[in-house]
Design goal:
heterodimer, A: eight-stranded mixed beta sheet, two-stranded antiparallel sheet, 10 strands, globular, B: 9 helices, 75% helix
Chain lengths: 277, 164
């Protein structure tokens, strides 16, 4: 029996007969829900009061500068920057811009296609940008997956394949390089590079031989070497804010999936499987 | 009883047991699973006017639970023991296997554990799992593979021995 099948069966055997006092949990849930709702209303009230206070202070300050009574104010000279416009020349990294940056760094003897990607935004700031594409060289097609996110994911080779190495680079970044063989017995092989920079940015790039998920068995090994993956993820070009021209010019590469907002549930999880926006 | 409370109670009664089982696999012991289930139900009740209009309230409840679990583990990971033996659901048969299995799961990071539960207990696709967790399908594939390797290493030959 395959390991995945065994695991599936044992997970079910572990909990499927678990009994629970649902009435107590529902009663507790309702009580907790009322607390959440009260806290939310209180937060809204405090936020509203703070807004009014700020507007009032600003108006009072402006009034003290405005000269004679009755003077009318013109529109503000500056407007608040939108999340996607961090400065006049920089914009938040988009999936298309990430793809463009990647395409510029891939070995030139391959063709690319099947672009997909998306991003999410956290309530506290930018989230993950990811793209997936096919890369076809003379030996056949393969898959490439890139993710960039401002989250210093702990890297470790503990429990991973023997072909796993973790090093600290001279600039303080941590780099994990790994070659894997799928534990499910298929011929799927990956080469992976994961980098966590000192500024907390995480960049991962995975090249696989496309035997299982996308294309039929095409090649025994992924096309990109660990050295090539390393060169790409350690590039200083990976940033969450990139040249606005790059973002504008790369927009037409593909249509990304709708941006998801990741927040403390239930403020707004979204999913194609049916959760609300 | 208000209409909202009545509807919510009906939903929770239909969905609660499955949520609790998922919480058990995620949290690893009964008390933590009850807390996670109750918090999830609380969040659902607080947002019930939105949940009831959702295309798929069941999917919504699953997403709320998984994200609550991952967020909670991030906040408390410094206080978590790195390894422990969970309380068992049943005491009849299979106890050794469950102890071993749950101990192996406890070695996984929160998000990896959630991926294993979603992929192999609830049979979600890579794409659906990615959407529930709000991460990319590529990340799900990678972490899923790493998690399986880790679980397999932790279990060694126990799984086959105990299931044979």
């Amino acid at each position: 029996m395959e390991f995945e099948t065994e695991l599936r069966e044992r997970l079910h055997a572990g909990v499927d007969r678990a009994a629970v006092d649902l009435d107590a949990l529902i009663a507790g849930g309702v009580a907790q829900g009322k607390q959440f709702a009260r806290r939310r209303r209180l937060t809204q009230l405090v936020a509203a009061a703070a807004t009014i206070a700020v507007i009032g202070s600003a108006a009072a300050y402006a009034g003290s500068l405005s000269g004679p009574a009755g003077h009318q104010f013109g529109p503000a000279a500056q407007t608040t920057a939108t999340p996607s416009e961090t400065s006049p020349t920089l914009k938040t990294l988009t999936p298309q811009a990430a793809l463009q940056l990647l395409l510029e760094q891939l070995p030139p003897d391959g063709k690319t296609g099947k672009y997909t990607g998306g991003s999410n935004v956290k309530t506290t700031g930018p989230g993950e940008v990811w793209i997936s594409l096919s890369y076809t060289d003379p030996q056949g097609p393969s898959n490439l997956t890139l993710a960039v996110m401002p989250e210093p994911i702990p890297l470790s080779c503990a429990g991973q394949s023997p072909q796993c190495s973790l090093t600290t680079l001279p600039n303080g970044s941590k780099l994990l390089l790994e070659e894997t063989v799928s534990p499910d017995g298929s011929d799927l092989r990956t080469r992976q590079a994961h980098l966590v920079r000192k500024d907390g940015l995480y960049i991962s790039l995975i090249s696989d031989n496309a035997t299982k998920w996308k294309d039929k068995g095409t090649r025994p090994l992924p096309p990109l070497s660990l050295a090539e993956l390393r060169a790409i993820v350690t590039s200083p070009r990976w940033r969450l804010s990139v040249d606005a021209a790059l973002v504008d010019e790369s927009n037409s590469l593909f249509v990304p999936r709708p941006t998801q907002t990741i927040s403390d549930p239930p403020a707004g999880p979204t999913s194609p499987s049916g959760s609300p926006s | 009883m208000s209409v909202d409370l009545e509807e919510f109670t009906e939903f929770a009664a239909a969905r609660g047991a499955q949520l609790f089982k998922m919480a058990y696999l995620l949290a690893g012991d009964r008390h933590a699973a009850e807390d996670l289930t109750q918090t999830t139900l609380g969040k659902l009740y607080a947002a019930w006017s939105r949940v009831r209009r959702a295309d798929n309230p069941v999917a919504y409840s699953r997403t709320v639970m998984v994200r609550t679990y991952v967020a909670g583990r991030k906040k408390t990971r410094l206080e978590q023991p790195t390894s422990y033996l969970p309380e068992l659901v049943n005491t009849d048969g299979d106890t050794s296997l469950r102890v071993t299995l749950f101990a192996a799961l406890s070695e996984l990071a929160a998000r990896d554990r959630a991926i294993v539960v979603l992929r192999y207990w609830e049979d979600h696709s890579v794409e659906d799992t990615a959407a529930i967790l709000g991460i990319s399908p590529g990340t799900v594939r990678t972490r899923s593979m790493r998690a399986l390797t880790r679980v397999r290493k932790e279990l060694g030959s126990d799984l086959s021995d105990l299931t044979s």
